Amino acid sequence: MTASPTTSPMSDAGQTTTTQDGLPGWVLPSLDFATFRLTLVSKAMDRYSLRQFADHGFTYAEWRLLSRLASVPAGATVGQVADMAWVDRAEVSRAAATLEKRGLTARRDNPDDRRTPILHITQAGMDVYRPLLAERSAFHETLMAELTGEERAELDRILTKIAYQLGAVMKNGTSAPD
Question: What whole-number distance in Å separates Cα of residue 17 and Cα of residue 54?
Fold first, then answer.
């Protein structure tokens, strides 16, 4: 189902704005980029997710850590989790300290580097992770429900290309060439 765009009167900046039915601010003349719209979707998803995590007594950072550790049975270092979650190490360290106090994660010595312990999810962590994972899976499935299998694959392919490009921009500290 595709909504048709409508034109709105002049904005305060003197530019005409275009709105998809029910999506104000979706198209702005000076910000007419699919990646801009991707940030709008991402922010809305974050707001919903934050509420969902709070209902379970978690922050987003704690969920990121718990979900990454649940997918790595051997555990991972703070740096490895940070890389997997695309966040900084300090965020992971703070979440690890909180979850460890709650008994949801634990540390063990790293035989390869005594300075970087291995974090792992505990059984208590798995017990709270599984039901929240089911809710998160349902949320993501709901968002994708109107897409065909082919559209889902295409979306994933496009997002992967954008992610690689963003990684290159972040690494170089400049915009990519046109």
Answer: 35
